[in-house]
Design brief:
292 residues; alpha+beta; Tetrahydropterin Synthase, Chain A; 6-stranded antiparallel beta sheet; 5 helices; 21% helix; metal-binding; 6-carboxytetrahydropterin synthase activity; lyase; zinc
């Protein structure tokens, strides 16, 4: 017997890629459970599927930075802070990326590359270990939202957030809708999505000098003069990142509300006489609207 739940959850995360650097992503999760009927004549109660399995998935990968554990470009070591680790990553085509964060902000995937397939294998193993005996198999499908238009991948952290959004390198795959004088502008959408393709969005108030950043010895030695460093303390601990390429520093916290306003202000700064409406998404099916 099989039981299925489509659109069980959406996982928002970032991952390290040797070709692209740090990439924000959002995947929708579908699940099929196979097994024998239990005493309630069910494979598993829908309430348990929606609550327990979603919680397992969220704890494993949601709002984390996924690390390709078998990639030779990746180095991980204990930072000396309680339950914190250093991460150093050397992409092939852009500058190195260095982090120091609580270990709960990372998920190490046993693969050379973060893909839907490698994350599916990882999650299947994690979930199956926590299912009742009558459930014999689980089939996961991880899929991006079908977007008829332009979108971008962004990574950020929200230091004021009490939940997992505080992690300095988690992200989203997001579409955007832009209106200029009440008329939708596909050209502006395309331009903005190119600008923020695989972007890391940092808040200017989180910037620190290289002498202040906490990184591994390897990371400190490999910093260039062009690397910019950002750090903050949040409820889960101290977070640091040093990055050079695919970086934009914004004058606000990077909540979707303030990013919608930031985009609108950037557009109007170039054309002060025009009115703009920005419908900015944070992953799938949620976002904020900014008007100027």
């Amino acid at each position: 017997m099989q039981l299925f739940v489509n659109d069980l959850t959406v996982i928002d995360f970032s991952y390290l890629c040797k070709d692209r650097g740090v990439v924000g992503e959002s995947w929708i999760v579908d699940v099929i459970l196979s097994g024998d009927l239990n005493a309630e004549s069910m494979v598993l109660d829908f309430g348990i599927v929606k609550k327990q399995i979603k919680a397992i998935i969220d704890d494993a990968v949601d709002h984390k930075l996924l690390l390709p554990g078998n990639d030779q470009h990746l180095f991980i070591e204990d930072s000396g802070r309680d339950k914190h680790v250093y991460v150093d990553f050397y992409p092939e085509h852009i500058s190195s990326i260095h982090l120091q964060s609580p270990e709960c902000a990372f998920a190490q995937i046993p693969a050379e590359k973060i893909t839907e397939e490698s994350v599916t294998r990882y999650l299947t193993k994690v979930i199956k270990a926590q299912l009742p005996e009558n459930v014999k198999a689980i089939e996961l499908t991880l899929r991006p939202e079908v977007i008829d238009g332009f979108y971008y991948h962004y990574t950020h952290g929200l230091k004021k957030h009490d939940g997992n959004c505080q992690r300095i390198a988690h992200g989203h795959r997001s579409k955007i809708t832009l209106y200029e004088n009440d008329i939708r502008s596909l050209s502006l959408e395309k331009k903005w999505c190119r600008r923020w393709q695989d972007i890391y969005l940092a808040t200017n108030s989180d910037a620190i000098d290289q002498q202040q950043v906490e990184l591994s010895q390897r990371g400190q030695q490999d910093l260039t003069a062009e690397h910019q460093c950002f750090s903050y303390y949040a409820p889960q601990g101290r977070f640091d990142i040093a990055i050079k390429d695919n970086l934009e520093i914004v004058d606000c916290d990077s909540t979707v509300e303030l990013l919608a306003d930031y985009i609108a202000r950037q557009l109007q700064a170039n054309n002060p006489d025009n009115r703009y409406k920005v419908v900015a998404y944070e992953g799938v099916g949620k976002g904020a609207i900014g008007n100027v």
